[in-house]
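**Discrete fold encoding**
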Amino acid sequence: MALRWDPDILPPFPAIALRALNLMSGTDTSLIELCNLIRSDPAFSTAVLRIANSPLVAFSKDVTSVLQASMLLGFRRLRSVVITVGLKAYLRGSFTPLMRACWRHSVACAIIAERSAKWSVRDNDFAYTAGTLHDIGRVALVTLMPQSYGRVVERGAERPEDILPVERELCGIDHCEAGRSLVTAWNLPEAFVAIAACHHDPEARLPGAASLVPPSCALADSLGFAAIRCRSYRGYDDLLSLFPGPARKRFPPSAKELAAEIATEIKVMEAA
């Protein structure tokens, strides 16, 4: 009997990461609450400390406690770190080559979205979180229907957006609709529902920092961080034209340089 899409039978996303997603106010109380949540889980505590002491953050002194990391990183950045660690924990039980490709694509998208948001004076922490979660529907499909999704990978597509009808044919649902369903089931903020559902829709008009996720996703694919290899990608200069002018001017001059920078950051995240 073929498996059908059912978000209720998927493993739950780590509770700490879900709570971080729902702590949106950014108040001191939220920071203390998030800090206490992290300290209650040894794996999350260790991962947060590793990232806080990594070259990505480059604090001038060693960070030796979650409370210290929380104060130095700040609530919004800490929340983004926790969600990234949460995604990695969610994949840990089945870190196959395909899952690793999904992970690398999501983190690459997050890095690009964060940079472009910062350069265009938008909410860069939200952009990073949105980039991390935009492809959660694909992760869920790979988890729930590994054989069916394996056939999607074998079939491939000409362009990334052409994967969606292949997914619908072989899995009964595409990863954007699966993402909408899953994020709704997890009761996450509405902004993440739209991002999961619409990041391949050229007609979608996502607001603010969320609008940076679709071009960041496409750029991550073209730089070699695709979850599924396609036969054709848009060129670097063409994709940069999709970003706001202030951000467009700040990207490295070559795709190779940007890909190397992202690969270095992903390596740090993978070691956390």
Remarks:
- The mean pLDDT is 88.
